[in-house]
Amino acid sequence: MLLFGTRIPLSALFGATVMVLFILLAIFGPWITPYAPDATVGKTWTGPSTEFWLGTDNIGRDILSRIIAGAQTTIGIALVTTVLSFTLGVSAGIFASVGGPVLDNLLSRVVDMFLSVPVLIMALIVLTALGSSIPTLILTIALLDSTRVFLVARAVAVDIAARDFIDVARLRGEKMPWIMFHEILPNAMPPLISEFGLRFCFNFLYVASLSFLGLGVQPPQADWGGMVRENGQAIAFGILAPIWPALAIALVTVAVNLVVDWLLSRNVKPSGASAEL
Amino acid sequence: MSDENILEIRNLRIEALNGQVLVDDVSLELRRGEVLGLIGESGAGKSTIALAAMGYARAGCRIAGGEIRIDGTDLRGIGPEGRQGYRGMRIAYVAQSAAASFNPAMRLIDQICESPLRHRQMTRPEAEARAVELLGKLGLPEPAILARKYPHEVSGGQLQRAMAAMAVIGRPDILVFDEPTTALDVTTQMEVLALIKQIIRDLRTAALYITHDLAVVAQVADRIMVLRGGKMVELGEAEQILGAPAQAYTSALVAERDHSRPLMRPLPADPGAPVLEARAVDAGYGGGKVLSQVSFRLHRGETLAVVGESGSGKSTLARVLTGLLPQMAGEMRLDGRPLAPGYRQREADVLRRIQLVHQLPDMSLNPRQPLAKIIGRPLALRSGEKGAALQRRIAGLLDLVGLPAGFAERFPPQLSGGQKQRVAIARALAAEPEIIICDEPTSALDQLIADDILRLLMRLQDELGLSYLFITHDLGIVRRIAHNTLVLLKGETVALGPTAEVFAEPMHPYTRKLLVSVPQMRKGWLEEVAAQGPSEP
User: Fold this and answer.
1) Burial level of B169, CB count in 10 A (0-12/13-18/19+)?
2) DSSP B403-459
3) Residue of A46 and B297 predicted with greater confidence
4) Are A156 and A96 in contact (CB under 8 A)?
5) How far apart are alpha carbons B297 and B469 in whole angstroms?
6) What is the largest CA-CA distance in chain A?
7) How far apart are CA A222 and CA A231, in angstroms?
8) What is the rounded distance in angstroms from the CA atom of residue B366 to the CA atom of residue A37?
9) Which of A169, A148, A248 is nearest to A204 (CA)?
10) Is the ipTM of this complex over 0.85?
11) Model pLDDT for residues B193-239, shown as the tens digit of each residue
């Protein structure tokens, strides 16, 4: 299919459609939920019916309403986290590429230290120690994730920092922020955009996992990872309740990945200047 | 078709996938033992035609029409496997950049022997023995040891010879040389050229020889085809094309290669105090010294050429003068005042007065900035102008370097190589400099375009009184534009003085070697130089 003069494969189109759908749910959620997401409106764990499309949960709340409300929490937190992590990681990565070998080594070794510990374990420790709230959750994951972003941003930026136009800018007397954000960043954007999609997926899964483990979003606020935990035991009785939020998590992850795959394949195709350099 | 012709191309048409015609109705034939030179500027379709001769089209292109016959068989009619049988066996290819064409993770010998082994032409010991023998014939020292090396362990000239060995090992009927000496130093180019000629003669193969340099093609080709924009301009015997070209375009190319006319204005008798002066400058990277005891003076309106082979320290000198690489010892003076070693210690006004134009505009212009920003930023920094006043200054600078004002909103990837270099010059001018250091600004450009850039630089020198430090390995350019010349060999000064004197007897042996290595556009030049024997300084 053609859109804006570019060919978009069906898989990416499917991914984009699902993404847009969930983003609309997240934005307009409060107006379209059939019931109040936190109110007990039926019996415990009823199956899908015309009254409750996806059934009710462990304390009789409408699952569809909670999934719609949870979209805002889960996607919103993951998005804010990723934006924060990129701001930190990209700035530090580019800074390392132009700030000289001492600074580069210092930053890189600190990042190596963080990389040696799995994000989820580290986040569990921090959240257990500090207690879980949404700001702590966002800050913790963003800080840990930014070390991964740093690696990619630095690798891309080092290559750009070696080009002659950076020397020209230095000889013009440009200050560090100009070189970082006007000379290097625009050239680093294509790989960073697809990386943003990938990191969003990871962060989305971290938020869901932490909530599932009880250290993320706290009840009664609706969120998908928490919903799987609350209804987890139902699966033993063949009740569908925990499947719906799990399915939503899987759908968003797959959808973003499909779009990222397409973006990545576009980046590796030689075109124009990138093929010459 | 006649038995004589080993290769026949009829009405070849090659299109890009978007429908753009790259090669339009080109026909040629190649007799056994004959060398046909294909010449033209970049984008003329030379390489596309050469690859098509092997039945191959680059990604994004397709052979849309015509016939390609090797010994009577149409390559287009025999399918991919059939073509594979011809490649490497009947027709072989020598690429421009050996460094980019070898697999860095495989030893040279394995890559040279790959084709005869794949085609089951020889056993491994036979192929390896033949490879070593060929490397020896190509003048490589200790071929048995060299063959076991990896590509990064040998020099560019050696790699280019190894590639020639790879091409001829299967004893092909046709060799395709795609600018095999363009990436080499002028002295190495001469050696490789002589070897290529010898291979062609010894093996009595036919060859297609692609180049943009008429002087090079004059040495090897029996006939020459001139191409422009994918169409044939002229085809004839080498003597006729070089001596009496029938088409205006060919005449322009031939005239361009004639380096006799100087472009620069003479210097005044008393040039006054030097604007830039270097006294016994030493510089290097890490512990190694790349420049030692380099001294020179540059006056207002003067062009000082810095020449030497690659590795002679030319570009290092540019980095030292701009302050990107602080010198280890010695002193530099700008207008009589000492120049701080590192650019960070130099005042903005000092930085402004020395500007740099690089060799590759693709690397020196930020591809994600419009020209208005590339040129406008140094203007804004210097004058603090904004809005309409700044736009007028940008348009004025574009006009000064011969570009339309409408280009301000374009990005570098939308420009041609020559236009990009003009933008780089405009950016240097935006700072209103006194000295421009030009680091091989024309070596990546086609001849006619390069000539336009030289004329532009000379005009600007005339109008603005600029001083140039012009780094180059092309002595033809030096004699046309430089008042004074500094010859560097491994970082040491071999000669310094007025250009005419540097290139007049008595010459330093190294200067002579550089000078005789510049290909001249007459048949037999290569033999004359070779007859003089090795001239190592």
Assistant:
1) buried
2) --GGGGG--GGGS-HHHHHHHHHHHHHHT--SEEEEESTTTTS-HHHHHHHHHHHHH
3) B297
4) no
5) 10
6) 73
7) 12
8) 52
9) A248
10) no
11) 888 888 888 888 899 999 888 888 888 899 999 998 888 999 999 88
CB A149 within 8 A of CB A81: no
How confident is the model over B86-117, as pLDDT tens digits? 887 889 998 877 777 888 899 999 999 988 88
Give the integer Cα–Cα distance in Å for A71 and A23. 8
Q: What is the DSSP letter of B339?
A: P
Cis bond upstream, residue A220 (ω within 30): yes
Sign of CA dihedral B123, B125, B128, B130: negative
Whole-angstrom distance, CA of residue B53 vs CA of residue B64: 14
B485 C-beta neighbours (distance < 10 Å), count:
26
Q: How far apart are CA B218 and CA B240, in angstroms?
A: 11
| Residue B482, pLDDT score | 93
Q: B366–A187: do the CB atoms touch at under 8 Å?
A: yes
Distance CA B404, CA B372 (A): 12
Question: Where do the DSSP E strands lie in chain A?
Answer: 2-3, 6-7
Torsion of CA A137, A141, A144, A146, to 10 degrees: -130
Identify whether the C-beta of residue B495 lies closer than 8 Å to the C-beta of residue B486: yes
Count of CB contacts below 8 A, A vs B? 54
A184 to chain B, minimum CA–CA distance in Å? Answer: 9
Query: What is the CA A119 to chain-centroid distance, rounded?
Result: 14
Confidence of residue A6 (pLDDT cuts 50, 70, 90): low
CB B28 within 8 A of CB B84: no
CATH number of this structure's domain B276-520: 3.40.50.300
Span A121-141, pLDDT tens digits: 999 999 999 988 899 999 999
Nearest CA to B246 out of B222, B226, B260 is that of B226
Q: Tens of pLDDT along A146-174? A: 999 999 999 999 999 999 999 999 999 89
Three-class SS of B190-250: HHHHHHHHHHHHHHCCEEEEEECCHHHHHHHCCEEEEEECCEEEEEEEHHHHHHCCCCHHH
What is the 3-state secondary structure of B234-277? EEEEHHHHHHCCCCHHHHHHHHHHCCCCCCCCCCCCCCCCCCEE
> Which residues are registered as beta bridge partners of B16?
B61
Identify any residues that bridge with B228 across adjacent strands, giving them in sequence order: B231
CATH number of the domain located at residue range(s) A15-34+55-270 in this protein: 1.10.3720.10
Residue A57 to chain B, least CA–CA distance (Å): 53
Is B367's CB within 8 Å of A273's CB?
A: yes
Predicted local distance difference test score (pLDDT) of residue A267: 65
Q: CA of B472: how far to CAs of A43, B437, B478, in Å? A: 86, 11, 8
CB contact under 8 A, A187 and B360: no
Rama region for B229: left / alpha / beta (φ>0; ψ in -120 to 50; rest): left
Is pLDDT at B475 greater than 90 in this prediction? no
| Amino acid symbol at A86 | F
pLDDT exceeds cutoff 50 at B346 = yes
Q: Is B82 helix (H, G, I), strand (E, B) or coil?
A: helix
> What tokens does B51 get?
């690859």
Closest CA relative to residue B502, chosen from B306, B309, B316, B312:
B306
Question: B378 to chain A nearest CA, in Å?
Answer: 7
Cβ within 8 Å, pair A170-B367: no
Whole-model pTM? 0.81
- B239-251: average pLDDT: 86
* Token pair for A124: 């569990």
Of residues A163, A164, A171, nearest to B343 (C-beta): A171
Our CA angle for B462, B464, B466, nearest 5°, is 80
Domain boundaries, chain A: 15-34+55-270
Terminal-to-terminal C-alpha distance of chain B: 52
